[in-house]
Design a protein that fits this description.
Blueprint: H1 2-18, E1 22-28, H2 33-43, E2 46-48, E3 51-58, E4 61-68, E5 73-78, H3 80-89, E6 94-96, E7 98-99, E8 104-105, E9 107-108, H4 110-120, E10 128-130, E11 142-145, E12 154-160, E13 163-170, E14 174-177, E15 186-188
Antiparallel strand pairs: 1-5, 1-6, 1-9, 2-5, 3-4, 7-8, 10-14, 11-12, 11-15, 12-13, 13-14
Length: 193
């Protein structure tokens, strides 16, 4: 019996070594995204919370404070088996964001997540977060930003509040629009199939 358990344990650890990390979109209740982030950081689990600076008052003085841009949303970069284990053992209020069509947790493609982090991770004050509507980003040219703080990010050129901006989205979850970008800093990309 012990030998079977040892074989099973060694097989599980080999499977986990071969398992690839994926980006999960996770809903956190009661605005506890920073508490979840701190727990993940302590455990060495890569994560991303879109943040922004806001002006506030503290003890009668105006201060700039870094706060989550989108409440109740955090992204985990973790192996599926470890995600299940974390979700089953944590006491923190988290749940998967489910894909309504497949009834499975939303997994964000690596390239899409890297583009989103490239823009949302700058903490640029003039970023505009947009809750996408079905089909909202299907029109417009796909572009790559060639310079400035968003260099390398790819997205769709859109008009937001009267300005041309590059919108980088995590399909069906969230999108972020850059500040105005001069056309000389954009390169048109072929449409995705």
């Amino acid at each position: 019996m012990e030998r079977q358990q040892i074989i099973k344990d060694s097989k599980t650890s080999v499977d986990q070594e071969q398992e690839s990390k994926v980006w999960y979109a996770i809903r956190v209740t009661f605005n506890r995204e920073m508490k979840v982030k701190n727990d993940l950081d302590l455990r060495g689990i890569e994560n991303f919370v879109p943040m922004k600076y806001v002006m506030g008052t503290r003890r009668g003085r105006r201060v700039k404070k870094l706060v989550p841009s989108i409440h109740n949303l955090i992204f985990f970069h973790i192996e599926p088996s470890l995600m299940k284990e974390y979700k089953a053992t944590t006491k923190l209020p988290i749940r998967y964001i489910m894909n309504p069509a497949t009834k499975k947790p939303v997994v964000v493609p690596e390239r899409e997540m890297n583009n989103f982090i490239a823009v949302a991770g700058t903490y640029e004050e003039q970023l505009e977060y947009i809750t996408p509507k079905p089909g909202q980003f299907t029109r417009g040219d796909r572009v790559r930003i060639l310079g400035g703080p968003f260099e390398g990010a790819e997205g769709v050129l859109q008009r937001v509040k009267g300005d041309s901006r590059v919108v980088v989205s995590v399909k069906g979850l969230v999108a972020v629009a850059t500040t105005s970008i001069h056309p000389s800093l954009l390169k048109k990309l072929p449409k995705e199939k």
